[in-house]
């Protein structure tokens, strides 16, 4: 039986600042009758905590979905628009249509639903925290897969972010097909 309360969807993304791979977004509608303990900004949680909470969210949320925008989309429409596109895709994949969308950050995707952007929402809103966790764990898993294909870049360690080690590997090996060509450190090597 569907609850009669307002269905609020939290949305967040992961991977905007990375030089490689897709940007991921998640949308989560939590069940107020079944709260999940320990939700927080994914960056403030350990990998073990995130993995545990991912299972709890997927088990106890009323609805959840994960979507992405590819490196090619990022290069074509820019990272902000690609992030908003991934968010919209995640919201559209939900099995339940929310009444309201709460988004971490400054901008909301165009969904036709009432939406609010909340700066640092992943620290203050449980449904956004849950979305933050799902987006990060999905993106981290994708980066581990890419590490298996391109071990020379060590994506498993830095997840594609512009660390000294990643920038050094880029200079040695050049960009992979998964690198975002519109991002300056990659563009300068092309």
List the helices and strands and how they pair.
Elements: E1 8-14, E2 23-29, H1 47-60, E3 63-69, H2 71-77, H3 79-93, E4 100-104, E5 115-118, H4 121-124, H5 126-149, H6 155-158, H7 164-173, H8 184-187
Parallel strand pairs: 1-4, 4-5
Antiparallel strand pairs: 1-2, 2-3
Order of helices and strands: EEHEHHEEHHHHH
Overall structural class, as computed from helix and strand content, comes to alpha/beta
Spatial strand order of the main sheet: 3-2-1-4-5
Main β-sheet description = 5 strands, mixed
How much strand content do the residues show? Answer: 15-25%
CATH superfamily: Ribonuclease H-like superfamily/Ribonuclease H
Architecture, CATH level 2?
A: 2-Layer Sandwich
Rg on CA atoms, Å? 17 Å
**Cα shape:** globular
Tally of DSSP β-strands: 5
Distance between the termini: 56 Å
Structure description:
It is built from eight helices and five strands; from the N terminus they run ββαβααββααααα. The protein has a single domain, classed as Nucleotidyltransferase, domain 5 (2-Layer Sandwich). It has a five-stranded mixed β-sheet. The mean pLDDT is 95. 43% of the residues lie in helices and 16% in strands. Helix 1 crosses helix 5 and helix 2 packs across helix 3. The protein is of the alpha/beta class and 190 residues long.
Key features of this structure:
190 residues, alpha/beta, Nucleotidyltransferase, domain 5, five-stranded mixed β-sheet, 8 helices, 5 strands, 43% helix, globular
Compact summary:
The protein is 43% helix and 16% strand. The chain is built from eight helices and five strands. It has a five-stranded mixed sheet.
């Amino acid at each position: 039986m569907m609850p009669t309360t307002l269905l609020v969807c939290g949305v967040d993304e992961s991977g905007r600042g990375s030089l490689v791979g897709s940007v991921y977004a998640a949308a989560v509608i939590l069940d107020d009758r079944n709260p999940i303990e320990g939700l927080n900004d994914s960056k403030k949680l350990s990998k073990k905590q995130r993995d545990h909470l991912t299972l709890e969210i997927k088990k106890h949320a009323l609805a959840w979905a994960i979507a992405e925008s590819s490196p090619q989309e990022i290069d074509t429409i820019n990272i902000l628009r690609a992030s908003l596109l991934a968010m919209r895709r995640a919201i559209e994949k939900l099995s339940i249509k929310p009444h309201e969308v709460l988004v971490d950050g400054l901008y909301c995707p165009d969904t036709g639903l009432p939406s609010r952007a909340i700066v640092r929402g992943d620290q203050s809103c449980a449904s956004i925290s849950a979305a933050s966790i799902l987006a990060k764990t999905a993106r981290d898993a994708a980066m581990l897969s890419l590490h298996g294909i391109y071990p020379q870049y060590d994506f498993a360690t830095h997840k594609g972010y512009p660390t000294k080690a990643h920038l050094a590997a880029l200079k040695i090996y050049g960009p992979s097909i998964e690198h975002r060509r519109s991002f300056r450190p990659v563009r300068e090597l092309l």
